[in-house]
Amino acid sequence: MYKLSIDSDSEIALASVHRIIKKFGAERVSDSAADELRKILEFIGENVARQAVELARHAHRKTIKPEDITLASKSILKY
Fold this sequence. Notes:
By secondary structure, the protein is an all-alpha fold. The chain has helices at residues 14-23, 31-58, 66-77.
C-alpha cells in the first residue's frame, strides 16, 4: 500500500473526508481510510497550489487566479 508522510497539521477536516466518501455510496468509513484519503488530497492540493503560485509569478502577478489553478491541476493530474 502506498503511504504518504504528511504532518499531522492537517488542513482538511477528517469529517469532510468521511462525507466525501459516503457521498459516493459507502455505508461506513474507517477513520484510517478517511485519513489516508485526506493525506492524498492534501498532497495533490499542495502540488497544485505550488504550481499555481509559480504560474502567477511567471505572469508577474501576486494574485492566484482560477486559471492558474486550472492549468496547474491539468499539469499535476494529467487529465
